[in-house]
Each structure stands twice: as structure tokens, then as C-alpha cells.
Amino acid sequence: HCISSAASDVYKRQAAARTELVAARADSGRALKHVAVVRYDAFGDMAGQLSFSAALVDDAGDGLVISSIHGRAESRTYAKSVEAGASSSELTPEEKQAVAAARAGEGNAR
Q1: How far is CA 99 from CA 18, 68, 103, in A?
Q2: What is d(CA 7, CA 17) in angstroms, rounded to the nearest whole number?
Q3: DSSP secondary structure string, 19-49?
Q4: Element (H or E) spanning 75, and its range?
Q5: Distance between CA atoms of 101 and 32, rounded to whole angstroms?
Q6: In this structure, are residues 65 and 80 in contact, taking their beta carbons and an 8 Å threshold?
Q7: Which residues contact 55 (CB under 8 A, 6 or more apart)?
Q8: Which of 14, 15, 72, 79 is 20 to 30 Å apart from 24, CA to CA?
Q9: In whole angstroms, how far apart are CA 91 and each of 2, 12, 65, 67?
Q10: Three-class SS of residue 81?
Q11: C-alpha 28, offset from chain centre
Q12: Using CA atoms in the order 81, 83, 89, 91, what is the torsion angle rounded to 10 degrees?
């Protein structure tokens, strides 16, 4: 009887571990784990690729893209939400490239 009780306990622990594993996998799919950065010269008279767009998305392509535009006199930073790889705000070509690269797992796209 003691062996069957121990076996039952092991079975219950194994079932609980499986449930936790399924939940952890679901949670990790929502993590912003796909990242890509595109560096570029925003203006023709500027060199050094100091401007960038960085996309951070989850497995479904949801997340955000952050862009920093570097000019001689100032820098501006923008953030746009992304759902399924698209945004309700118009994305620049560099932002689209960053989102596509992040979804493809390419990291630094340029």
C-alpha cells in the first residue's frame, strides 16, 4: 500500500509539473524576445549611422518599435505599438525593416 501511495504521489507531482511547463511555454510566447536593430543615416549630410529603429516583439509579432532620429542640432525618439507585425501608426521603411527582421529572428538587420 505504501508503494502505491508513493507512486500516486509521483504521478500527481508529474502532472503538476506538466501543467506548469505548459503555462511557462505560453508565458514565454508573450515575452518580447525577438529583437532587431536597424541603424541608418536619417539625413543626407549626416554620417555614422547614428539614427536607429529597434523592434521588440513576441512570438505573435506584438510589441513595439522605438526609433531615434539623430540630427545635427537635436535628436528625437519615437515609440509605436505593433500588433501582428503591423502598427496603427504609419511605420517608416526602417521601422518596417526592424519589425520584419525581429520576426524573422535576424537581430541586427543592417
Answers
A1: 33, 15, 6
A2: 15
A3: HHHHHHHHHHHTS--EEEEEEE-SSTT--S-
A4: strand 75-82
A5: 14
A6: yes
A7: 34, 35, 36, 37, 63, 64, 65, 82, 95, 98, 99, 101, 102
A8: 79
A9: 65, 50, 9, 10
A10: strand
A11: 11
A12: 90
**pLDDT, tens digit, 9 for 90 and up, residues 13-45:** 888 888 889 888 877 777 888 999 999 998 877
Backbone φ and ψ of 65, nearest 5°: -130, 130
The pLDDT of residue 107 is above 90:
no
**Tally: H helices and E strands in the chain:** 2, 4
> What residue type is assigned to position 69 of the chain?
I
**What pairing do the DSSP bridges indicate for beta strands 51-57 and 34-40?**
antiparallel
The pTM of this model reads: 0.74
Q: How far apart are CA 80 and CA 78, in angstroms?
A: 7
> Would you give the distance in Å from CA 64 to the centre of its chain?
8
